[in-house]
Amino acid sequence: MQKLPPLSAEQIGIFLEATLEAEFSFLRLDDLIADIAPLPRAQQDYLLDWIKRISTTNIEIAYQFAGRAVSLLDKLDRRVLETWALTAMDTYDRTGLRDALLVIRNVEQFVHSSEIRTAGTVFEDVSGILLTFVHGLSGRKLKLEQADAPFTDSETLFLPAVISWMSTVEDNFSLAKAMVAFQWAQTRFGSFRADLHEALADYPDQTHALNCFFALETLRLEACLARELPGLTRDMLRLKQQSGSAALTPVWQAFEIRLAHPDTSVETSLACVAEAYPHPAPQPVCYQGELRPDIVAGVLAARLEREKMLLRVKLSELVDDLHKQQDETEKKPPVFNLKPPEEGNTPQIDQFEITLNDMPIAPPDDVRQLITSIKLDLGDIPPEYLTPAGDGEYDPRLYQDEARDPDDVWQGTYHEDGAFLYPEWDCGRKHYRKNWCVLREKDVRPAEPGYVKDVLARYGGLVKHLRKTFEAMRDENRMEKRQVQGDEVDIDALVEALADARDGSEMSDRLFTRMHRSERNIAVMFMIDMSGSTKGWINDAEREALVLLAEALEVLGDRYAIYGFSGITRKRCEIFRIKRFDEPYTPEVKARIAGITPQEYTRMGVAIRHLSKLLMEVEARTKLLITLSDGKPDDYFDVYRGQYGIEDTRQSLIEARRAGIHPFCITIDREAKAYLPHMYGAANYIEIDDVKKLPLKAADIYRKLTT
Amino acid sequence: MNARTLNPESNFIEREPYYEPVGGEIAIFEAAYANRLPVLLKGPTGCGKTRFMEYMAWRLKRPLITVSCHDDLTASDLVGRYLVKGGETCWVDGPLARAVRSGAICYLDEIVEARKDTMVVIHPLADDRRALPMEKLGLILEANDDFCLAISYNPGYQSVLKDLKQSTRQRFVALEFDYPNASLEAKIVATEGRVDAALAERLVKFAQMTRNLKGSGLEEGASTRLLIHAGKLIANGVPPVVACRSAIAQAITDDAEMLAAVQELSSSLF
User: B114 and B226: one domain?
Assistant: First the structure.
């Protein structure tokens, strides 16, 4: 490779002036140019490329980055340097310029924390595994979240963002796992079944009393864990040794032995507090975390109230269901009872039998979950919990999740609530912008279902033709002759073979017929442009094309879904449901097709990402994403209008292709040749020069695509 | 040593298969058999359906003809077909026809996997007609009095396309199978996997942990069969954590994160 000479100061100056818009931003470039000029060409190129990439996001960040990066080029790994720049841009996207500049300025801190991160366990990386781990352990479905310190509120387990107390990644992960298991043990073995406030109220030094209690309870839980999860206990012992925990004093060793007995409960630990109080509490062990009784008490009280209500409501629903199946005469006042399983030497908390009027019943999973959760809190189920709720005893609003009207949520302050967040490709940055687009699914307001009938009448001849063509396409069963194996003897082949045999030539072994049945296994997603520009005849053509397509697909039996897309700005992207995959072609769907109306703009990337996600959930051998569109990606006064939008759309299509989806675009934009091949690939689009032909051609295109 | 070959009709189960009853299934099957009613076994994979059939065949002293259904299995595969032998065609009975003639127990495993046309063949056999129409011969084969039809299916992982039709399922006496309760399952694992009771109990506990994950990323928890596999590996000297990984974790999922989590569970337990 030819080695290029370094850029001169003048060349660098021109580049930086253009990139950082020195004319308007009045940034002083002299020092920067003087710093960059002596560098070798490769470093110059690397640096200038990144300055340019950052400048597409913000010029000030790019300038500050440039000022600091020159001196760091030799010191830092390229990867760290790039992460630093990307973090700054992400911060800018999220919280604005001030915070982004802080990231740039505090580069030392960033480098330090990234060093910690390389050896430490980062919450985001392990939360998935640990959450599944905890769910496997039985008991309540716990949640896992990030907080300032490891502790649990009895419903959610909290871990710090980074765990780096140990020296290796493996040990830090073991520590995180031990923390999670220890918090789980607190909920599983009833650490919160006692009112700590009351029990410890008499001690003059509350903090010391609480520390003593927690140390005692830790000893008890360690013994429980040793019985339940011996493998984990081995890890925990190792961690304790490595973190240099001091050995227990003889007083505490005595407690350890006493609390190791299988019959102990939180009461035993509490009873020991009085004896332990005069002695100093042992050093907390590394995975013990914190105990926050006030938070637990609040969560516990709310949960008990809620679960009592839920259980009673569910039980009354169970009774109602049962009564429906029975005759009037069989109705008795329902009496629920709970008993442990008949056999089994180790009673598990989630194994029990429920009886209704002495008949065992199989409770649904949610009831089972509820009972388990209540048993964890109280140790047993009080009888009043097992009384079915009377009519109107509880306000249904308390236990029913109300589906909020998406339109209301849109208008509110928390309009990102429950919406889908998608990244977007920034071509200038050559990187994604995280959670950039806010997307919501909405329903199309249905119009007259009679519309479909009118369209079909208008295209009478064509519809007949379509039906015929698509019927012929149905890959129906056919008889395959001359097979080696099959259901029946192929007499023709046999006669021939016998004749061959007589006259001395080789006899064929292909003597059977076989029914060949093959199923078309295609799922197709139609993505309909509902932007404002489709108003008028384009919209009409789209709707008519959909009617004819639906007609053809119904004959063919392929699975299909229809969704429209539109929106205004990245904060309000909208997907309009017209037909889901699992929905039959009902009059409502027809009414929704009729009701497709032009909306706002065309931010295509996010729509493709969302619909690809839906398409990926369908099981099919071939997955097609067909876009009906009238022009370039575009959004309200946004960079999306130009290169940026095209590049993002292209990127989203690449993602779709990677997931095994075949994208295809039908467009009526005459200029499409300028950008569609770049987005969809040379052969994956078709341009229709006359809008009126769209309905005629769409079905035909589909036929060609799938045969 | 030569492998033994058997005619399906003479596939008598000679030694008593190990089977632990979980409820009244043996009595129900016997009653159904006495009244010539067909039986449907449903339940998750690896919970002992096939073993139960072997046990019943041994108990009733009838040969057992098992057909594992697959998506290319046609009616002719069950009933029979013409073959060409020395310039002439000759009829060869399929497994179902052989069972009907000889009065064997015919067990169609995972029936929903088979093609739709096979159902048509078993319908007349499954009601009071007890006859097998042999379309290609133009004959109707009446079932031997000892003949018994049993089918199995797993309601857990059924796709919409592969559901047992009402017209089929309403002909059968249904027996539901599930994983046995913890202590019984431990006993089964200990006996079949040749491990001690304490280890069997741990294995069962591990299985329950994976079953807790059903629905949150796992399609199906570890079956009793997998536990026995793991037990056998451990009895042969494989360390428990490794045995759980090879025999259980890798068998139930391919998802890397789920695998890691299941792995953490087993390493905590052993």
Answer: no
